[in-house]
Amino acid sequence: MAQITLKNLAHSYKPNATADADFALKEMDHVWQDGGAYALLGSSGCGKSTLLNIISGLLRPSHGRVLFGDRDVTDAATAERNIAQVFQFPVVYDTMTVRDNLAFPLRNRGMEPDYIKARVNQIAAMIGMEEILNRKARGLTADAKQKISLGRGMVREDVNAILFDEPLTVIDPHMKFELRTQLKTLHREFGHTMIYVTHDQTEALTFADKVVVMYDGRVVQMGTPQELFERPGHSFVGYFIGSPGMNFFDATVAGHTATVLGETLALGASYAPPKGRVQIGIRPEFCVLGRSGGLPFSIRRVEDVGRHRIIRGTVAGANVNVTLPEGMEIDADANRVLFAPEKINVYADDWRVSPEGEEN
Amino acid sequence: MDKTLNNKAWFLVLPVLVLVAFSAVIPLMTVVNYSVNDTFGNNEFFWAGLEWFEEMVTSDRLHGALGRQVIFSAIILAIEVPLGIYIALNMPKSGFWASFCLVLMALPLLIPFNVVGTIWQIFGRVDIGLLGHTLAAFGIDYNYTNDPMDAWITVIVMDVWHWTSLVSLLCYAGLQSIPQAYYQAAKIDQATRWAVFRYIELPKMQGVLLIAVLLRFMDSFMIYTEPFVVTGGGPGNSTTFLSIDLVKMAVGQFDLGPAAAFSIMYFLVILLVSWVFYTVMTNLDKAEGK
To answer: What sequence ranges are listed for the domain ABC transmembrane type-1 (chain B) (predicted)?
Structure first.
């Protein structure tokens, strides 16, 4: 096991890439701590899988280096890196039994038969397949096959990292939850570095200690689920995480106040005047409705999603969402939306501006 | 949905029955008729019962031809199937060279059988043939018209040249359908090249390989034109395979009765062997699914 460092890493699928747009992965420096459980979150085509394949060595980056511990593995083959990877769709060896499938990576590394037997039984118990160990993998359901893939990914104890590339796409929703919990338990038990690629925020937030959000070939923020929620580092994180996403307003910011649509709003901290296109962002959870103060608001509709209600409305023509706890009265005459000042974040050109005095 | 019973519907299959009767059943029955009768022309038949069948079953001539046929089919299957797989594995997967290889591989399949025979007949001649002459120039004693071994080699090489492409193309299609993730997973699992072939490529090619083996078996078991053009079944009768012998017997010697009995047994043998092949391979498939 080792810490994985990406140094000035960038990748382009084109041979002579120069323009920014040519790069599937923009230059980045990133460290994956040994033993961390990371989720790599982002919309489709943002470079998540590319990054994963670079770490596992299936793809050689066009620029920069990959380090495992102190060792430069940029040019090392996949086999040398000793990495496990689970793919989006089940990959099983059809003609082998479930047992042989699980034992395959161990046998290829020439492990002792006794050890292989014990380890396979352990993994089988974990994925709940002890009963069918002697069955051929062919003819099993997609669910079962994907569980075998997961098991095969975790069977080696000495791997440097386990990479998951949207592994639960084909799994039934109730199984998803169960498997995710098992992965988490496993992580606690064995302490492997795990990187879990997904475009599903619930999956990312429940699995990982640290969530890495990617957007357009860049890592835009890495943080705990709470940090991503309360202080999104980039407007994309604001939109993408949370349901519904963050509300943004063009604003001018000076000191403790922001001016939006001619109205003055209090901020929780003091800001030096930011440069570029300035916006303030506020989570729907930190908005309330009222009859005075805040911004003019008109309600379009109310959605009851069970745990809370989402009020869809507009401020000066732009869509704004407000989330209210279940049971709280909605004042039908409310025509203003008010924000909790300390929950407002300030953005300049889509990147979050730290208030004065905040450790960055 | 309830289906109504309407016996008039049987009339709908009548056209097919008529067609099949004219194209297959009646000609086959004519052969059956010949096989149980003796005739001296003028459509006069004398009942012979199973006499011809008995004669053929015990005939050394037929045993010889059958033996040669079995050896021939076994050899070409043993060469063409592994060679075809090997070529398919090494063909480029995409781009210009992939198309180029596909066209190149398809060429032998497009050449009519008797032309293939003629090509090799001339190619192997010692006096004017490129191959024969070159070999002679190297001091190799090669003459397919005199030496049975040389004749066999020529016929086999010709068949391999003509038909390995078919196996390759079928396998290539099978290989192309394997998702990239399988190869990636194999790399992650640190599988050897052999393991990739054994556990990923071969299982995925199983279906097309079954077809390839069946086609090549049936075709080679019925082979007629090419060896007939090249060697005429000779030297002696060393390359006289079943169908060559059959034609000699039927239209060479006009022994219609024995030839008819022969061809019926020939037909049944091919049917039987193909059925066995098919059943064994599909059962293997099912057994693995359990």
So the answer is: 66-277
